[in-house]
User: Fold this.
Amino acid sequence: MKMKSLSIAVLSVVAASAAFAQPQPTRVVPTSATQLQLSFASVVKRSAPAVVNIYTKRKVRNPFADDPFFGRMFGGRERVQSALGSGVIVRSDGVIVTNNHVVAGADEIVVALADRREFEATVLLADERTDLAILRVNTGGKALPTIAFHDSDNAEVGDIVLAIGNPFGLGQTVTSGIISALARTQAGVSDYQFFIQTDAAINRGNSGGALVTVDGKLIGVNSAILSRSGGNIGIGFAIPANMVKVVLNTALGGAKQVARPWLGLDVQAVDGRIAESLGLDRPIGVLVRDVAPGSPAAFGGLQRQDVITKVDDFAINDEQGLNFRATTKGVGNTATLTYLRGGQVRTASVRLATEPANVRLSAAIDGNNPMQGAKVANLSPGLANEFDIERRDGVVVTDVEGRSLAARFGFEPGDVVIGVNGRKITNVSSLQDVLRKGGRSWSIAVDRGGSTLSLTVRN
Assistant:
């Protein structure tokens, strides 16, 4: 893959569970040797039956299939790849949550329960951007054990947690640790970065498994580790339970795609230099660089140079945090944004909506040119946010057909076409116009991740 294409966007939401309103237990530290000898066995007995092992198989084409010698040597036209991971049963009728990367591209998914029963699973919804997938198994009418959700917004650094999963295919394994950090946004694990960090041992195969509290509730879905060797070094990341609930309820509602709220804001984290230029005593919040006309933020009165510090009662320090809080508020709901303008604290009520359809209109490129098979759209604030694009002009590639010329020449979703044959590209119409004219050679300039790449093709 030539370039990792990131997008940061927001999702649909469900109403907070009534259980979240219950008083939280008082946190205490051990005060005696007896307390230090306390066991987590009862928590494991309650939680572990709802954590499953997931085995997948997928057929991949032999890259040497057309070679008469190597094709036979490497086993024909197709071969089968196997993978393993973990999952969590969240509904007794057979609904399971796991990581998208555990089941992505799988032709066969087998779920093995702790009691050794096995089921074939189907995918209800797969969301690459949050790295979550919702599966269903046919239980034959028998109820399966489940784990209840914990309100991940009530998590605190230092809380004891248990990680349950299937590391290295060994079978169900339990490790313990604490929450090391909250709201980690630079893990580089998925497009939507906002993680619980833990030092509970997480290894390959734990992906999709449960991170549970000491009262046996699901506080996160284990997703990845930070490691140079591939083994556990005490830095693991879990997707917060409140985000999991969003994707789960979208799937249970029958949708095949998560609806993502849109603020219409282009923001950046406030660093020391920006804080000094704005007269702030310290870096805080995110600076509004632009507001899309007619967007929810525009109707809420937000302007350029405002500094957003909170969404509802949650502090905001980066773009990922802003989007996460908008996600857990959801389309159709109103979020209260606290911001600074000219040193004064203000608030704005912003009703979250999906991005207008006309902004998302895309065109498929056809004809005899290097971009044949690509889908493109005018670069809007929403698309810039989705694909993590810094620039605000050009035409963005939104999709590429697998066997098209565009795929062959290496175009990827998130690429921004900024010039063709010396002509500046400002919108889809100008791109289509220059491509229709054809020619004996093509020179295409593309912005990818802030770097300009050039493609030259001669017929």
The mean pLDDT is 83. The two ends are 26 Å apart (CA to CA). The chain has four domains: 41-47+147-252, 49-137, 261-354, 357-458. The first strand starts at residue 51 and ends at 61.
